[in-house]
Amino acid sequence: MDKVNVAYTIDEEYISILGVVLLSLRDNNEDVDIDVYVVMPIDTINDENNNPYSNLETDHFKVYIIRIDEKKYFSGYKYKKIAHISKATIFRLFIDKVIPHNINRIIYMDADTLNVGEISSLYHYNMCEKVVGAVVEVAEEDIVFIDSNQRYLYGYYESKDELLSKYFNAGVLLIDLQKYRANEIGDKCIELLKNHAEFVCADQDALNIVLKDNVCYLNPRWNRIWRRELADGSIGTGCLSETLDDIRIVHYCTGWKPWRDPEYKLSDYFWKKAYNSPWYPELIKRMKARLEEDSDTWQYRFPWEKVNAGKSIVIYGAGKVGHAFYTQMMRTKYCEVLYFVDREKTSIEENKARVIGLSELADVYVGEQIVVAIGDATIRKKAAEELSSTININQNLIIYNYKI
Fold first, then answer.
1. Which residue, 251, 285, 312, sits at the end of a domain?
2. Same domain, 309 and 228
3. Nearest CA among 93, 102, 258 for reference residue 183
């Protein structure tokens, strides 16, 4: 049977998330032997003998935990927190030093990627003597590290066109470890980072400088960078939005993640696996906790803290807010939406719940919680009062007093 080596680097925050990631990797590659190496700080898990992913292992899928003392490898480099980028990401620079030295090729993937297809053909891809294989970063004017603050990435590229055509995203790397070790890529990157605190994307910038002209560029299917695409089709900034056939790896880059922002497109890949995993309760719990921390980042966030998990609900309002709420429920399977209630019975996509008028609600209502999906708080309150008075619904079952 074919053999594939894969590596991830994580910290404590990503333990449950990586569980879902590994489940998807295993289930999409049942015809190959896969050895997974998970690199984490030495103090991430109290019990050094504990493997949080042992329940995923089979005869053909093995997970090895590697705990490292970061001080040993950082060599005087002091990590500075950069937006959503975890310090654990820097650990990929040391992959060649911490995994068994008899391994000569490995696929490195960020912990915010999700494998949705086979990866054996990537593992055996002909890199034409290059050190790494990678996908070109999205070339958009609004990506800060492309050209906004750096003049052609700190002077290492001769022109903007060269930079846009060669700068790669380091979230998925096919690495020739023999060449990586021989060229001391990790050590050179650390030296760059020590002398360039201005690097916006830290080790990704360093890798693009050290590996310039030593990269085999891969089809974007191997690193399908998601974009902040809402269910209603509106598009944010920062990542690729074109539809690609035969996606193999989805990369949930940027500060928006499916475990925090389930309404965005491509998040359904993650939640389909998460729902049947042992980590589902923990992920839901974390998403609820996030509401108190940074709810302002949500476009239209469902009032998770006020609705009972696993129950059937009714959504009052079939507009943009209602659609966003439905998408969050559909993807996370937190609740079943029986139907929408809307004054005008607006049309709705085929795969959505049935829309009924307000007058019809009394005939079908059997005591479910009703979530009023209206953006304006004053109008939400009036709608709740109307529901309570005209259909004689218990006010406690109407969810309207929440921050959207």
1. 251
2. no
3. 93
